[in-house]
Amino acid sequence: MQQILYLVQKEFRQIARDRVMLGLLFVVPLIQIFILGNAVTTDVVDLRLVIHDADDTPMSRQLIESFAHTRYFKLVGREQRGGSTLTGHMDRSEAQLALSIPEGFQRDAVRGRSPALQLMVDGLDGNTAGIALAYAADISRNFQARLLEADPGLARRGAAIRGAEPEARYWYNPNLESKVYIVPGIMAIILVIITVFLTSMGIVREKEIGTLEQLLVTPIRSYQFIAGKIIPFTILGFLEIILAMVFVWLIFDISVAGSIPLLLAESALFLLTTLGLGILISTVAESQQQALFVAWFFMIFAMLLSGFFIPIANMPDAIQTITYANPVRYYLTVLREIYLKGSGPAELWKETASLAAFGVCMFGAAVWRFRRAHG
Amino acid sequence: MPRRLVAIMRKELIHILRDFRSLMIVLLMPVLMIALYGYGITLDMRNIDFAVVDDSHTPESRALIDAFRRNGFFHFAGYAGAASAAEEIFRSRNAKMVLVIPRDFAQALRTGPSVKVQVLVDATDSNVGTYVGTYAANVFRLFNQSQGIVQASLATVEPKILYNPDMKSTHFFVPGLIALLLMLTSALLTSITITREKESGTMEQILVSPIHPVEIIIGKVLPYVLIGMANGALIVVSAMALFGTPVVGSPLLLLVLSVVYIFVALSFGLLISTIAKSQQIAMLMTVMSTILPTFLMSGFLFPIASMPAPLQLVSRALPATYYLVIIRGIMLKGVGISDILPETLALAGIGAGILAIAIKRFKVTLD
What we know:
Oligomer: heterodimer
Distance between the termini of chain A: 19 Å
Largest sheet of chain A: 4 strands, mixed
Number of helices of chain B: 14
Strand order of the largest sheet of chain A: 2-1-3-4
Structural class of chain A: alpha/beta
Order of helices and strands of chain A: HHHEHEHEHEHEHHHHHHHH
Strand order of the largest sheet of chain B: 2-1-3-4
Shape of chain A: elongated
Strand content of chain A: 5-15%
Strand content of chain B: 5-15%
Radius of gyration of chain A: 29 Å
Helix content of chain B: 55-70%
Order of helices and strands of chain B: HHEHEHEHEHEHHHHHHHH
Largest sheet of chain B: 4 strands, mixed
Structural class of chain B: alpha/beta
């Protein structure tokens, strides 16, 4: 026990001595959460819109107003009559969306001929394009509904103003803010970066400069060495989580809806996996550079296949199957569910069991390999 | 090329080739990512599980449920007893949406001016909320039509999708992936390789030799330019082969501007190596300052226009933001240099600035 304590002490001294490292560990992640929590947004606002109005009547101007007065669109150009240069604007990426109002729009609308509004959208970003089209359709619908309500005589005979309509209620996130969903994800990623990378590189570093050999010829047993490496990083990991939770609460006003002890317990299970992976990598890698690459290789896939920002349900079946082998997937689910919905162990037992299984296997394999390599 | 420079480059190349495993990871990872993500990456929602509370039990209510089932975006998960079960359904993640059809649904549909159907959405993922709202509106419109309710309308909207008519996310994603991986390999590899020499003390040894610091930098960095270019070429070729991603514009222009971007990334790696004292720190600094921001703030996945104004300024400082406009323009729209001149200049400017600081710091810290 005494030996382990010495090793832990040594590790903390090494970290505390290095001011840059301290900054990287405790300040940078918070900046990351702040910036990314604000930046990572799937909300689409201020889409650049150009309009060609060949009609130029009260009704067409009213339609333009209803487009310009939303936060979704920003009117960057408006042409009247004459030839249209809308495509040019799109080619130069000055506009993402172009609306063309045909000549005789008002006349035809009043006579019930249902004139067609042409809407061009830049499809390069398929996601934004889809949302833009939906917004535009929505605005045009509301515009018509307003006109029809004001003057029911405009409607064709026998047409109803409305039939069945949906009334949407958004639970847990009524304003549909993406940061609520993204922030717990960033916490998971930062935890992975800090534990996997630092553990593996830390051990390999001792290998590289030869202090590992020195330690191993002392009476210290290999399990004591591992504990001496693991305990500091576990404590660091928990500090990071708690710090991040406080920060997220202060800055974004997102607090944990569920039980914090449960959240920490699940994190402990997850740390078993990441620390185990770190040790495992250190037994394979010969240099810090190699450790870095192997760790990076795992991390990028773990991140992309976790459902962090690409919904797993959208992936092809084969890839969905792969995601079951990704511990980050379970941790992310657990984190989000506890954070946002306040779910308890009853709802999360599957994920918890998976995390535990991963943790035990990964950690066991790591210790076994380490003892074989250095025992 | 001076002999000493060649000697340093040779030494660096031997280092790289000796570590075959790292090289393979650097070169193969992009191809694997393309293969996985070309298929997988799409932010729009599909297969949204929905449950139904049907208090109406009429042919009309069943027709509405059918309309949802046939829609393709929704997947029927089962019936629920009462609206109060929604909480339990969301918590156990059995469905993301609960449709509550009121008792008087069929009757109100015939007589009343309108009948409201509650659509409860588990909006923890705001994206799901946005899409469900849109899709549901569509389903209701189709349902109304099928029930013979002619909804009054004045005009129709005819959408036309330019450049990428199928709205395939792959084509949009590939250029972003190139930007990310070039940044990663170039910045990370240089910062680590130089810090390694510092850590093991060999940098001091090289510096007391007659070699000029600039020669060391160029000699160490050039091999990584080659790796970066090989990487970029691999990604483009595999994306073309696997998904038919086009390169509409000039490949030569793309290559030249990619070299400019690689140069920016390398300069950044160099700058970090002048600050970091150990490889661990160099790694953390590079990952935190290049990879995550490039991934999330350059417009790779999330539109810059949606970010708060101060963060839009930050994204303007990222080289990847400009490179993305350039590479998407050339690959997908086929634009020429005149259309992307401002971005090119910005990129070169950022690179020159970083390099100047890095070289200055390099001399100060080591001379």
